Please model this.
Amino acid sequence: VLQACVALARGDVVAPDTILEEAHTSESAMAPAARLALSLIRGFCHLVGGAYGDVRNVVREALASANAEGIHAYDPWLRLVDVVALMCAGDRALAASDLQVLESGAARLQRAHRACIHYVRGWLRTQENDWIGAYREGKTALAVAVETGMPWFECLARIALAQLYATGTDRHNAGAQLRAAQNIALRLKSPWLQFGTRLAAAAAARAAGDAAAKLDDLRTAFRLAREYGLGPPPAWRPAALADLCVDALDAQIEPDVARAL
Model:
């Protein structure tokens, strides 16, 4: 379990999946806290793979177990994974409601949790076309992630900001955030983060009218999605992702992945 947690902290979603398979046979003999940690890892892996219904089931069972055992250290992370799954599934209203429930337990929240909360708030503001609010929350999420020392989350926050800047036609800041995110993804050797950065790069190339660069980034991004079973990355506007998938289908780039995303 510790190995899987360390891998997740690097943004590595491949190693935890392997560890989950190996730990399955001995899970019933684990201490309650270890089982809850394993549930969190399982929920996160489902989230990355796009199995949002499975995320909700895992979180619901884990929170019930936490209440029964009186162990609540993992509650904020479990609830955050659940909120992100709801956002990815398009249930914005329930996600916002559950986020309020999470914030009501502020005494148990750490700075790392708050970085994620600001990230989701920014995502919500984006879907509401509240660009000022989205910028504010996105910048706060990034600042807290940097201060807390969470490079994998810093990468996600920079990808989200890059998209916001690109939407506002600020290509200079969009490019700077994207380059920083790409450097983190490469340093961490995380296929999931590299998938997100290459997808964001494809969107930037599309906006700049650079068809060759766009297709090159799409090939790399969709290959990673196929090889590692990755679902849609968080905080993407459905229309922007759909445009890239249409471009991939037109170019016959990983058509199964393009249809799935």
The chain is about 80% helix and 0% strand. The mean pLDDT is 89. The two ends are 30 Å apart (CA to CA). The CA atoms of residues 100 and 117 lie 10 Å apart.
